[in-house]
Amino acid sequence: MVDGKPLRIGVAGLGTVGGGVLKLVSANADLLSKRTGRPIQVVAVSARDRSRDRGVDLSNVRWYEDAADLAVDPDVDVFVELIGGSDGIAKQAVEAALAAGKHVVTANKALLAHHGAALATKAESAGLTLAFEAAVAGGIPAIKGLREGLAANNIREVHGILNGTCNYILTEMRTTGRDFADVLADAQRLGYAEADPSFDVDGVDAAHKLAVLTAVAFGAHVDFKSVHIEGIRHVSALDINYAQELGYRIRLLGIARRTEDGIEQRVHPCMVPITSPCGATDGVFNAVVADGDFVDKVVLVGRGAGAGPTASAVVADLVDIARGRSTPTFGVPAAALEPAKAAPLSRRRGRYYVRLMVVDRPGVIAEIAATLRDQNVSMEAFLQRGRAPGEAVPVVWTTHDTDEAAMQQALATIASLDSVLEPPRMIRIEDF
Amino acid sequence: MVDGKPLRIGVAGLGTVGGGVLKLVSANADLLSKRTGRPIQVVAVSARDRSRDRGVDLSNVRWYEDAADLAVDPDVDVFVELIGGSDGIAKQAVEAALAAGKHVVTANKALLAHHGAALATKAESAGLTLAFEAAVAGGIPAIKGLREGLAANNIREVHGILNGTCNYILTEMRTTGRDFADVLADAQRLGYAEADPSFDVDGVDAAHKLAVLTAVAFGAHVDFKSVHIEGIRHVSALDINYAQELGYRIRLLGIARRTEDGIEQRVHPCMVPITSPCGATDGVFNAVVADGDFVDKVVLVGRGAGAGPTASAVVADLVDIARGRSTPTFGVPAAALEPAKAAPLSRRRGRYYVRLMVVDRPGVIAEIAATLRDQNVSMEAFLQRGRAPGEAVPVVWTTHDTDEAAMQQALATIASLDSVLEPPRMIRIEDF
């Protein structure tokens, strides 16, 4: 199975993660060789800037300008793609590597979310491994945990905090009382958020990861286009305070659930109990919770980003390859993946938090209550603090279990009331 | 690698876990066959009581009186040992199975704690798999997580709640205010604790699991005899209340740490911050926290016992075998395991909680304080509530970082004071 021959790696992309991989493979070389029975050697790299010091001696390593050339280097056994992006050079290079008979390890969730099934088919038909532990939840062994550790189970649901930037922003908003824009600006200064933060704060990054996790959990085709996506731009300090008061935290969650209508996939802000696994996960950490028919709930928490944790995940995949282990890409052979069948969000049944800004005058609450009654939406708790006759005041309530379709209908009607001054803010409650 | 041929299983021991495995393999047969490319079939079993209904049709399955006969059945590919016990029939049968060229899957932590290295050597020299995910932390994929998911890391420390019975008892004591003996009796009535609870409450079961986890984490020989073991019989409702007041929970933890003196392994009650992963894990749940040099901390939480979760772990091992995957038993080949070198507990440096029952009279505190000063033990917080001149009152303090040896010396001196009425209760504080 393994014969002591070095496993030769080509690393495309030497940013934060690529630099971390080089550092890890060098620092823990003896350990890796002891664990796998063979050395893991970086023999070639590609990156835009050749002059930058990456803290590792690269003098004996072949340099390529173009990742696609590195991908077909005849002396490379495994192509490690750390470039990013769903298309363009990353996709070309990965396809070239597979066509040239090389295993591929990637941290690229966008690529997998858009082309995962096609790439898995290519890899498996050539007897190659396509591995991507680092693409979801950073250093947490979430892919291995689901695909192998919980392989005996029908997974009923998987959910988690999949974007550390959003979780950092929401945590900071709560602990400092500041508003979204203010905390985001700080996060950008500190390097926790990108200059263009939209992939993170609009939920796209979490949705990429959720689509990949869903495929692994349910043995189904990656179906990114069916993910319902809402980001955190509309979450206000006011809502975070109300959440606390009601015993909840606001988190951006990715949730995938098998339902009678198909697989439901959604990324949006949720209220979750403060002591639930996701409620208790603050700051830049990620959490993944899987619910299997025999194992029940399993919770995995750790660092979701950063050079060290992501490199740990990339090299775990290399260790598997070096040990001669391989598993179907998404847990079942690509040809046997279940066709994507998306359950519409309108069929969600659950609880809701709603906040309105209304004119404080007699009859407003009666009007809202009548609208809810007409849609069969049953109120659970209702909060209105202080009075300011004739001025804008927040009105907050939570509902008992309600259909999403009815809730949306009620919100549309409420939004059109004269006394309602801003679009209603609705946050789904998940009592995990 | 896999060829569609059924993987034929022999299950020895049909108690709670064995019954769960039969049920899982039957209920999720299609799923398992889809994930592995071949059917997983139970073809033979052994158990003492043939007549008991286990809710699964066993009419086409061969029955053995003796597990050692089942172990050498020529039509069995994998021997699943669910008998338990460090020696006797479980050990004989596992050795017989390996000698007959069969893979072994076991949930038997006692067997592995005492004979793990020898069995690993036997298995590996014959090219066989010895797998034991179910032996540690029930349904949590802790062994796979460490041995494969975090394989790129030098593990610095692993700790966790490894015994659900103890965690249930400690949680009940806190939430109901009742004493140990009372809660234990209830747990026995409910089936959460054995008639003879000593393996659980005296820390032996947790120590077996810790010894196995340590071997996997550090690639070292299983060294059960070096585990320092204290159970929870001495934890009182009083200490649990003081812990709460100080911001801690009392947990029975297993802790393994690489130190300059060797590997430290200990099982004892700890005070951990209420919001730490182990502090937040209540009831029958288990938690495992690993700290790796690149990944930092990873937390895994789930059900540590019960038919379903344990069967999930056993069958995950079968899925690996069916997929043709194998990994060195303890993460590095048995021949390359590091010799056990135990770090003495006397070298521990950390914080301590101490409670005394003293006679309430002038000068007592001064006497205790002088003893601590003489041993260079620096007090952090000190609590004495109420007064009852001439009677017994509790006195509690916590220390700054202190050497275990100095602490033990100070406690011995304090215990000998006339005004100290009971042996001092000391609980180590771990600020994870």
TrEMBL record, chains A, B:
It comes from the Bacteria. It is an enzyme of class 1 (oxidoreductase). NADP(+) binds at A12, G13, L14, G15, T16, V17, G18, G19. The active site is at K209. Its EC number is 1.1.1.3. The keyword Glycoprotein does not apply. Pathway: Amino-acid biosynthesis; L-threonine biosynthesis; L-threonine from L-aspartate: step 3/5; Amino-acid biosynthesis; L-methionine biosynthesis via de novo pathway; L-homoserine from L-aspartate: step 3/3. It holds the Pfam family NAD_binding_3. NADPH binds at K109. The keyword Nucleotide-binding does not apply. One of its GO terms (biological process) is threonine biosynthetic process. Gene3D superfamilies: 3.30.70.260, Dihydrodipicolinate Reductase, domain 2, NAD(P)-binding Rossmann-like Domain. L-homoserine binds at E194. InterPro entries: ACT-like_dom_sf (IPR045865), ACT_dom (IPR002912), Asp/hSer_DH_NAD-bd (IPR005106), HDH (IPR016204), HDH_cat (IPR001342), HDH_CS (IPR019811), NAD(P)-bd_dom_sf (IPR036291). Keywords: Amino-acid biosynthesis, Methionine biosynthesis, NADP, Oxidoreductase, Threonine biosynthesis. GO terms for molecular function: homoserine dehydrogenase activity; NADP binding. Belongs to the homoserine dehydrogenase family. NCBIfam families: PRK06349.1 (NF004976). This is Homoserine dehydrogenase. The lineage of its organism: Bacteria, Pseudomonadati, Pseudomonadota, Alphaproteobacteria, Rhodospirillales.
